[in-house]
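From the shared-data thread, chain only:
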Amino acid sequence: MNTFADIGINSDILKGLSALGFEEPTPVQAQVIPLVLERQVDLVSLAQTGTGKTAAFGLPLIQLTNPKNKKTQGLVLCPTRELCVQVSRDLEAFAKYVHGLKVLAVYGGASIDLQIRSLNRGVQIIVATPGRLNDLIKRGKVDISAVRYAVFDEADEMLQMGFQDELNAILAHTPKEKNTMLFSATMSKGVANIASKYMTDPVEVTVGKRNAGAENVSHEYYMVQAKDRYLALKRIVDNCPNNYSIVFCRTRMETNDVASKLIQDGYNADALHGELSQGQRDQVMRKFRSKNLQILVATDVAARGLDVNDLTHVINYNLPDELANYTHRSGRTGRAGRTGTSVVIIHMKERFKIKEMEKRLSKKFKQCRIPTGMEVCKKQLVSLVDVIKNVEVDHDQIDPLYAEIAQKFESLDREELIKKFVSLEFNRFLEYYKKAPDLNVSAREKKQFGKKERPNGKFSSNSDRDQRFTRFFLNVGRRDGIMPQGLIGKINGLPGGGRIQVGKIEIMQNSVFLEADSKFTSQILDAFQHVVINGKTVSIEVARGQNGNSRPSSRPSRPSRPKQSAMRHRKGRKVKAA
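Structure, as tokens:
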């Protein structure tokens, strides 16, 4: 059994680890730390969240930093404020007994003047979000010209959030001769590009399989009619009385809608999405971390960087557009050696997605039945009885009152008394579920729907065949940092945006062709008016012609509504990035 001393960690840092209760390194720490300490190589580490990646890069980073030199020697880039703060706190805890070492978290939403004053006093390690650090560089308030070690934490998430330009600008101010470490849950094309562009012969350390989910997470799916999705969510939650979960939705509107319904129905829930102020976001997260909230309803972007170790469930109210996002979602549970469950709620048209995910993740998804009302009631009743049975009695407080209590109950026999106590807490469930319908898709419905499937598993329903798509042209592209997620997010942010079907997205170097439901043409054109991306004003219009090489004329005014010839019958397909 290896200890941290066995893999080269010095005595000052070992004292800090001992105070934190760290006894032996995790697999990713055992592989990464000796490599960095002994060879100081460029390194790509692929491992799920919750596997100890912060200590894997943080411990050697602290040990290789000279605390007597006040120049910034280490730089850690994180995608979100929450992760930035968490990583800086962890590094400070690791370095508690390393005299003179200063770590500073640099992120948006906090006072930039306070951060500048701290930088002026000298900081050896900066942990930063790309946006705020780039702002400080432009102001000339931070010097990273002496950085010897650069770390990309959650690199795939930074790229999905559109930080490519900021990363380029930041790294341009660091020395060419430095060691770079990249940590990511998945090896996406963007992550591979960073490795090839900024690293020299990087060593790859993979814990588990590439792009696979955490090993101690089980995957389940429930198939329901689309209209029953929310009812299914409630029943899944009720069937797990002690669940502590994140429910993932695709859009801000859906997040608010689901959270509001849960709150109205008596659940201890709240929403987390991009339109919350930083103060509101912090308040929600404090409540969730302290378990004053049982259910957090969130979008993918809002949940990035959350550090909660003991989630029992991740519930996919809707599947994400990108497989990598599912990997990140499911990795929120089953952390720090615990087990967890990733739940997916789908309707019949999404069956082929489960098969695709099983194949690409090398994971088996178990199809489960939505429990009946009676099954839920039984599970809740057993949980309630366990709570009553295990409650601690404060005899000093209760004994003086016992005679009066006993007198009140003397007319009730034992059986009647038990039933009354249980009913006091349990009547709500009994009332709600006494006529609860079966939400599972029947064999007859499956058979009828199966006739609409093609042999290759892709769907060709009547509604798909009748749907028309309009093709739009935008004057921005890969060079401007355009990502499919950003385009989809803009469309889904429209009123009623959750209903808009997006077809193929083709991202070129300087332009984009985008297909979307023709019924929403006007709204989509309006949504991209006056939008500026990286200083460039976006121009959008309906594309002429039917192929990717047919470029429309560039006229500044908004185009008229598309003619029939500009449309084509096309089935909605999964978005794919260039």
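Confidence is low (pLDDT under 50) at residues 453-466, 546-578.
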